[in-house]
């Protein structure tokens, strides 16, 4: 690294050390003065401070410590981080105790918000994009509000080991990121994590992956059995996209969700020894749980229209798969007469009850289906139609693309706005229907696109939506000229 000379303040050279804690700093000044004021490179860190108290009073939380950068005049900033985090583990929280996120939302109960004198009772809302924002749902109302960041150490979502730190969700756990913290084996600096089977440092080989799609359309509306989620199931995920509704029933017949034709509110529910996160956004419903379940749960679907498919998956210990099959047979669900295939999904005949297929954890996955060609949407008439009917037309750079359920979500940076019915942020999420949206957009490229505002039926989601076969073009100066011409011809 090149050496740069910087003049040393003569007042620094005349200082005398005050106490042992300043001895190192004083020696540094002395050396710099003797060498004629030559300082090079960055500053140096002082010693780490002590660890703070744990952010939580029970369960898991986060402790933080900091250090100060000592720099002479003209030196560069210190290299590295000024703060360091570690996971702290306390005694388990008592049964029924309010979660850390519940307590933070409850702080706003009875206080006027949203610029009015109205007050509300707030509960956590888990359907918003940023998991580390304090998103709270007003009880009895169809809207939620973001109160800023959650406190450090708040779980990103119920039942997971991920924690929010400085507004970011640190995936899995901080043990893998901080050498001062312990992995699941209790050893400092090991970074060892649990696998999908719950085994510390395992390789997902002590359990089976169960994944199927229930496609029985049903001859009548009402409740239909989808599958038994057995005792010991982990990392449960259920999703569908329709006007139908998921329902969950305990073995004793009591409903956890959407029973007796009464819809449950989105949120977190306790059942079978685990926390279930239930979300409903328009036609999209999901149900997730980390597990393990302490008893079986019966997954059902309340059919209001033909069933396009209910996707479900979970991991099950190998020794529990035999009892699971026996229980399924006792309920009248006979196994299918074929060998299990890796991640195979087949329509279920109406006369044959459904039983999930157990899949070895190490089985290879099938390649994703290729997307069919998009329809031709070129031309001035198409461009004019979409400009006039859209709520937003802007130039954006695609930062990331994520496929989830039956939609594709793009994270974009807005560069230039041609038309907007309401303010746009610098970074936005843009949604497109399907896993093969038309036209497609690739990450790290710039596009000119037309989007519509879409508010979900329950009022909890306000999103930018790209319609199928809409207007999305790679941005060029020529495309900029064409869209400005369309703006002049489109009636206000």
- End-to-end separation: 60 Å
Structural class estimated from helices and strands: mainly beta
Question: What value does the Rg take, in angstroms?
Answer: 28 Å
Q: Biggest β-sheet: count, sense, barrel?
A: 7 strands, antiparallel
Q: Could you give the count of β-strands?
A: 26
Overall body shape = globular
How does this structure look, described?
It is a single chain. The protein is 12% helix and 33% strand. The chain has helices spanning 10-13, 23-34, 100-106, 318-330, 380-389, 477-489, and strands at residues 44-45, 60-66, 69-70, 83-89, 122-124, 133-138, 144-149, 163-165, 168-170, 207-214, 222-229, 234-241, 245-250, 255-257, 267-271, 274-281, 284-289, 297-303, 310-317, 358-360, 392-404, 407-420, 427-433, 446-455, 462-465, 472-474. The longest helix is centred in the middle third of the chain and has 13 residues, at 318-330. The protein is globular, with a radius of gyration of 28 Å.
